[in-house]
Amino acid sequence: MIVFVLKRLAIAIPTLLVLIVLSFILMKVAPGSPFTGEKNLPRDVLNNIYARYGLDKPEWQQLVEYVWNIVAHFDFGPSFKYKDRSVNDIIRQGFPVTLTYGFWAFILASGVGISMGVIAAVKQNSWADYLAVGVTIGAQVVPNFVLAPILVLIFTLWLHWLPGGGWNDGKWNYVIMPVIALSATYMANIARITRSSMLEVLHSNFIRTARAKGLPGWQVVVKHALKPALLPVVSYLGPVFVGMITGSVVVDLYFSTGGIGQWFVNSALNRDYSTILGVTILLGALTIAGNLVVDVLYAWIDPKIRY
Amino acid sequence: MLADVRVETNTAAAAPSAEPQVGPAAPIKGRSLWQDAGARFIRNRAALVSVIVLALIVVFTFVGPLVAAWSIEKIDWSIIGMVAQKGQPSLATGHYFGADEVGRDLYSRVIQGTQISLAVGILGSAVAVIVGTLYGAVAGYFGGRLDSAMMRFVDIIYSIPFLFILILMLIMFGRSFVVLFMGIGLISWLGMSRVVRGQTLTLKNREFVEAAIATGVKPLAVVFRHIVPNLLGIVVVYATLLIPEIILLESFISFLGLGIQEPNTSLGALISEGAQTMQYGELWQIGFPLGFFVVILFAFFFAGDGLRDALDPKDR
Amino acid sequence: MKLRAILGAGAVAFTLMGTSALTTAAFAASVPDGTKLAADQTFNYRVLDNINSLDPDIVEDVDTSYVVGNLFEGLYNEDAKGNPVPGAAESYEANKDNTEFTFHLRKGAVWSNGDPVKASDFVYSWRRAVDPKTASNYSYFPGLVGVKNADDIVAGKMPIDQLGVTAKDDNTLVVTLNKSVPYFVRATAHATLFPIPQAVVEKFGNDWTKPENIVGNGAYVLAENKPGERVTLKRNPKYWDNAKTVLETLNFLTINDENQGVTRYLSGEVDQTDVPAGQYPSMKQQYPNEAHSVPQLCTYYFDINMTDKQPVEALKDVRVREAISMAIDRDVIVNNVLQGGQIPAYFFTPPATADFKAPDVDMAKMTQADRDAKAKQLLTDAGYGPDKPVEFTYIYNTSEAHKKIATVVSQMLKEKLGINMQLQDMEFATLLDKRHQRDFSVARDAWCGDYNEASTFEGLMDSTSSQNNSGYSNADVDKWLKESATSEDPNQQYLQIETQVAKDLPIIPIYFYTKVFLQKTTVGGWPYDNVEQVWYGKDLYKTEG
Q1: pLDDT digit of tens for each residue in chain C (545 aa)?
Q2: Which residues of C touch A266 (CB under 8 A)?
Q3: CB-CB: which of A196, A249, A280 is closest to B315?
Q4: Which strand (E) or helix (H) includes residue C76?
Q5: Rounded distance, CA C245 to CA C268, Å?
Q6: Which residues of A221-254 are buried (b: 16+ CB within 10 A; e: fewer)?
Q7: Which residues from chain A sit within 8 angstroms of residue B165, using beta carbons?
Q8: Which among A62, B185, B220, C297 has most CB atoms closer than 10 A?
Q9: Which among B49, B159, B172, B286 is the top mutation candidate for probing chain A, defined by the most A β-carbons within 10 Å of its own β-carbon?
């Protein structure tokens, strides 16, 4: 197991390098630069700016220096668009926010999703089953950028229960709506996968044996069926994790949380080179970490798998 | 079940004459996997209804424009600026679904949006399927070093935040319909390749594959002629379930402002516009596109589930 | 307690000890007698996007300039009507031909850390603004308003100490200009010409604008800066006019989506937000005292590529351009699409600009029916029609409002003239790049004045101006621009320039902006008549709701 983890970590490094180079090339090829503003700058001013940010050096040199800065000093460089901030500052400020609501969204989506899936499977073809499936699919097909304004209309404008946006250092009433908006889509899929996997397990022989032995219903489900049923769910959790990161763009835009999701898109639109690379690396690292955790979990659950 | 009975009656009919007949017997009508699946599928009410609904929607997108009173881009000057008051759905004005914020007919635009969204979903899924299936089948069949390397490659690509790259690609290559579905398809093939590889690993140990190799069929031909056709079951299921996800992804991209170019539109773009006017009471602007969107996605989900149930009888 | 309204610039330097928002005595900020002030003096203002840098020398967008304008103070501020009033300076003198200005700084004014505000702080800041090493996007501004040697320093041809600004002593600042700029005092309200605390900047370097380090001479200090969420400012008790400040806290809330802004406004979280295009009439109906539309110093127009990179032959013919301009029904755009009280534009400089005399353009006086007829005629004369249609692509940046206008215009042109105007939207950075490279046929453009005087608009028609996106080049216009700098009555030259531009049509003006916004009735002191919509927290107050 340790060897497996180490091997995966070893691959992570070339992966990140490929990622950096790919993003670097793409963003340099894209039209526009971080310094094109509504008011065009005189050539002299532009030259000064390029010199200051090192953009007048040959491309390959920029790339090498950039990578070296990260590896040696953990310095992602200054933001090109937000002139008094460095990318480290941006990440340092935004990441805890995203992590907070992302974590709770993950817990909510898995918790509710798995529970609903189990209930639907156990009470198969009953009204509970159809209700659960219907509700979860309903939540899934409404895109989160429609759900977010609906939530705000209901909870802020009509009921006055929750604030419409902001973060306020993560006070609970500012966290609720972002969490719901982010988790709703995944709750559905997790429930569906749990349901179908649970159904398969419940019809298998060893469960029949357990029932034949006289074990009470719910004990059968929880102690014996749940673990194997969770296998497909666990492998789905990897994409869920990645999906939540991209979904956080909508959350950040609508709820003004200040998380890093907004940088995901904004930095590309602003051509903020260093922020683009910084965010890309961060996301790549998170994805790799997430997939690794999922694979380890998978191995823990399924004793047949040995790395 | 019916088929089983049929076979038995054949042999039963043959039994009374104690002498087994030598010579050509009445050809027994075989039952393929597909026929079985088809029968099971039809019995699944939800899945059947879903397919019918989808078919109806597709027909609607071709027939609907014939009764449209307005084109997708013509502005109704008499209601522009007063859409909240005058833009409601009505048969009189010819705006069956109402009008959008600029005074264009929502009926025609929803039809076009549906066409584009379905096209992106299906074409994107097709790209993902073709690339993913071939890749996964080759990796799974040849195994060993090649498999290891190919799957490592997939792992690496998997870690790349692809949405990001897609956004950059859309910026670079412009926002054409082709870039859109190609880009989305290229993100989605990874999952498909993993699934296909797994299935291939199981299949390659089957007897018919052994037989093919024994009779000297070249490896690549084995892959294409024997493995891939037997993968179709799982591929079709996956592809059907992939379509709604692609449509959702496209709607997200439209929301970001990087979707299909004006005056063309997609359901995602229409929903995004409609979401902005909800609080001003112009609910038809989000209602109709979202309605179509939800119905299409539901239909694909149920159809996909139905297909999976039909092809894999264990899932009762 | 009775409030005493204190008007004008009488510098009252007493600081009240332990002042809290509840004791309303001696607070004025031009609060009318008998007004009941709210207990919570917090103003929540919506901004569209993240606040960029808080360094005055680098500020380039409007929302950031609002924040910076509350943290720092320039020589002169703008009053409620947009006219200059003393700020960090108490008075000034100008020489006869307006090429040298001497400012007398306010005695006793201090930075928020207690250090006195010195003339050398202004010198340090202005030099830093033009210093190539600072690489500020607005480094062209001092040169634009005539500060001597600014352009050469930016180009790296001269050292920064050659800039035409010196500190005669701690309280006297002398500015030397390279041309006559009678309106120079107005320009000092612009962020680029604010002072910065030299000692602090030298100590912290690039980190000096962080909340724990930043020091300003404005009425507020920075309490919190959370990018993507909000920026919070709190009262600066050391401000020279602090006694008159009523608002305790200013919150700048980042709300990306304007409809979300309206929702949060209606739920009470935001005190001012923009009204989305097309919603003004219904907002005005529902909230008559809260919906406002005031003229703004900006023009919305189409650039036509006048260089040889123009791919469409037809657009090189002035008759075709005139036909297009005539066929565009600006009244429909203004009344049915935007509906925010915008003004149709037939020339370039907004009529609300100070001292500007709007030219008399023939096109403006015709009825739309006449214009349509004339347009058809012009197009046929130029040799185009249904068998030889005109086709071009119009590029604009992705936004609902721009999309609506583009759609409406393309339909107008198609129905009236059979012209096929293809729409291509793109995100902002790409549009800017294409405009800059002159890689377009027709592009969307807009210009807001850097200061309240017509030259900030007319200057764009200069063939050498880097803001001249259309690439328009007319020797007469260049000549008149030069003359206007020294002319007794620059309106003469401006009139000639506008007439020529209206004839050549390198740009097609569409409308003059208004700022359309919702504001709670509890907000008092808002400068509705200031066409640049520059506001200061120290002039505002909140009444009891």
Answers
A1: 322 333 222 333 333 333 333 333 344 567 887 788 888 899 999 998 877 789 999 887 888 889 999 999 999 999 888 889 999 999 999 998 889 999 999 999 999 999 999 999 999 999 999 998 887 878 888 988 989 999 889 888 899 999 999 999 999 999 999 888 888 999 999 999 999 999 999 999 888 988 899 999 999 999 999 888 899 999 999 999 998 899 999 999 998 888 889 999 999 999 999 998 878 888 888 899 999 999 999 999 999 999 999 999 999 999 999 999 999 999 999 988 888 889 999 999 999 888 888 888 888 899 999 999 999 999 999 998 878 889 999 999 888 788 889 999 999 999 999 999 998 888 777 788 888 888 899 999 999 888 888 888 998 898 888 788 899 999 999 999 888 887 888 888 999 999 999 999 999 999 999 999 999 999 999 998 888 888 999 999 999 86
A2: 50
A3: A196
A4: strand C76-78
A5: 23
A6: beebbbebbbbbbbbbbbbbbbbbbbbbbbbbbb
A7: 22-23, 26
A8: C297
A9: B159
Among C262, C278, C398, beta carbon nearest to B257: C398
User: What is the ipTM, given to two decimal places?
Assistant: 0.81
Q: Beta C272-274 vs C89-94: how paired, if at all? A: unpaired
Strands C391-397, C442-448: parallel, antiparallel or unpaired by DSSP? Answer: parallel
- Rounded to whole angstroms, the Cα distance separating A15 from B193 reads 19
Burial C264-297 (b: 16+ CB within 10 A, else e): bbbbebbbbbbbbbbbbbbbbeebeebbbbbbbb
| Cα–Cα distance measured from residue C28 to residue C246, given in angstroms and rounded to the nearest whole number | 7
CB contact under 8 A, A157 and B279: yes
- CB of B176 within 8 Å of a chain C CB? The answer is no
List of E strands, chain B: none
Query: How many CB pairs (< 8 A) connect A and C?
Result: 153
- Contacts of C343-347 with CB under 8 Å at 24 or more apart are C343/C295, C343/C511, C343/C512, C343/C514, C344/C510, C344/C511, C344/C512, C345/C299, C345/C300, C345/C301, C345/C509, C345/C510, C345/C511, C345/C512, C346/C502, C346/C509, C347/C498, C347/C501, C347/C502, C347/C509
Cα end-to-end span (Å), chain A: 6
How far from chain centre, in Å, is Cα B254?
Answer: 19
Alpha-carbon gap, residue C366 to B169, rounded angstroms: 47
CA distance C470 to C188: 30
Task: Write the CA distances from C213 to C121, C202, C530, integer angstroms.
Answer: 17, 12, 33
Of the candidates C2, C7, C10, C13, the one whose C-alpha atom is nearest the C-alpha of residue C29 is C7
Tell the burial category of C359 from Cβ atoms under 10 Å away from its Cβ (0-12, 13-18, 19+).
buried
Query: Which helix (DSSP H) or strand (DSSP E) does residue C514 occupy?
Result: strand C507-519
Residue indicated by tokens 């520059």: C534
Whether residues B276 and C425 touch (CB distance < 8 A) is answered with no
Instruction: Report how far apart the first and last C-alpha atoms of chain C are (Å, whole number).
Output: 19
What are the φ and ψ backbone dihedral angles of C385, each rounded to 5 degrees?
A: 180, -160
* Total residue count of chain B as it appears in this document: 316
Neighbours of A190 (CB within 10 A): 26
> Is C5 strand, coil or helix?
coil
CB C130, CB C154: distance < 8 Å: yes
* Nearest CB to A153; choose among C253, C254, C263: C263
Q: Which of C473, C467, C442, C408 is nearest to C315 (CA)?
A: C442
Burial of A99 (0-12, 13-18, 19+ CB in 10 A): middle
Residue A241, CA distances (Å) to A175, B286, C342 in order: 18, 29, 47
Name the residue among B80, B104, B171 with its Cβ closest to that of C336: B80
Q: Report CB contact under 8 Å: B80, C263.
A: no
Query: Rounded to an integer, what distance in angstroms lies between the CA atom of residue A181 and that of residue A143?
Result: 9
Instruction: Tell me how far the alpha carbon of residue C54 is from its chain's centroid.
Output: 17
